[in-house]
Specification:
- This protein has seven helices and 16 strands.
- By secondary structure, the chain is α/β, with parallel strands linked by helices.
- The strands form three sheets. The chain has an eleven-stranded mixed beta sheet, with helices on both faces. The protein has a three-stranded antiparallel beta sheet with strand order 10-12-13, with no helix packed on it.
- Strand 6, helix 5 and strand 7 form a beta-alpha-beta unit.
- The longest helix is centred in the last third of the chain and has 17 residues.
- The protein is globular.
């Protein structure tokens, strides 16, 4: 049984999903995957949208680039829309149910492990992973665009490696960064697969959470992050950069290191109260009541990240992190 914890209020929808059937047929033989080759030697870079079906800001960024015919000035650029099946369900439903349409059968953002690729032959998401895997593994740099259910504060999420940190620092916006040690969440993300998480490799993958799912601001930020990502890698036409990249006042970078991810032992688990995004708690403050057990903040300045309004036994419910200076 799955329940919704109403202590977390889903924001009102501002943006609406639209028909993306015109983008289905690309030039790769795989639906909703477009690859543009500059004909000049250079890096292979990619931008992924709709890893979750309700994250329309990623769709906004990918289609913005396609609509304007943006081409890399060197190397190749691959653009794709991931979980289109979940997105189409969102389009057909009441947008108040936006949290139901992250995926169809399983979380595409946690389906990149070899076990899923090898053993899951029934889920929509596993089939999509196998179709996208050659494109993921071909990249030197990958931007995975996301949004959140309720957190309006944008932030990067990436494997804690110096080369990936440098990529996020170079993009510059947003200024908040969340670092993963690896293996803490259920399942494997794109950014943790293969060469992206190999300390000895050069490939880099960074995910960005652009704000709440159906907010106008999330779509605007997604386009800006995509442009800054391409520009920082030296593949964006200077004229496009000068015309479309908004000048932003630099903000101090704030970094958080994920400490642990809590998974409830029951479907009746609930948050002790409503939490603000990136709220810091004192050691011992209650966070989740799970049957007879209570999860409390294990250290001072314990920071609440990504609490899920949908509570399911054994699935990620809330991530705890600590601020770091380095």
């Amino acid at each position: 049984m799955t329940r919704v914890d109403h202590r977390l209020r889903v924001p009102v929808a501002e943006a609406s999903p639209r028909d993306i059937s015109a983008y289905r047929r690309g030039n790769t033989g795989v639906d909703h995957v477009h690859r543009i080759d500059s004909g000049v030697p250079g890096p292979s870079v990619a931008i992924a949208g709709l890893t979750h079906g309700n994250e329309i800001c990623g769709m906004t960024a990918v289609t913005w680039l396609l609509d304007r015919g943006v081409r890399p000035r060197r190397g190749t650029m691959t653009l794709w829309l991931g979980n289109v099946a979940a997105y189409e369900r969102l389009r057909a439903d009441d947008l108040a149910n936006q949290t139901r349409h992250r995926f169809v059968d399983r979380d595409l953002n946690r389906a990149w492990g070899d076990d899923v690729v090898r053993d899951d032959h029934s889920s929509v998401e596993a089939h999509r992973v196998r179709a996208l895997l050659p494109f993921v593994e071909a990249q030197d740099a990958l931007l995975d665009i996301h949004s959140t259910t309720f957190c309006e504060t944008p932030f990067f999420v990436y494997r804690d490696l110096p080369r990936v940190r440098a990529l996020a620092d170079g993009i510059g916006v947003p200024s908040v960064q969340v670092l993963m040690a690896g293996g803490q969440h259920s399942g494997l993300t794109m950014g943790e697969r293969g060469k992206f998480s190999d300390p000895a490799a050069d490939a880099r993958c960074v995910a960005v959470e652009c704000g709440t799912h159906l907010s106008h601001a999330a779509g605007i930020l997604a386009v800006q992050v995509a442009l800054r990502f391409l520009d920082g890698l030296g593949v964006l036409d200077p004229h496009i950069a000068a015309t479309h990249i908004a000048q932003a006042q630099p903000e101090p970078i704030r970094r958080y290191l994920i400490d642990r991810v809590f998974r409830p032992a029951s479907d009746t688990a609930r948050f002790a109260r409503a939490f603000a995004a990136f709220e810091e708690l004192r050691r011992g403050e209650p966070i989740v009541v799970d049957g007879a057990e209570t999860l409390v903040a294990p250290f001072d300045r314990c920071t609440i990240l990504m609490p899920s309004p949908v509570v399911t036994k054994g699935r990620d419910m809330v991530t705890l992190a600590r601020p770091i200076d380095a």
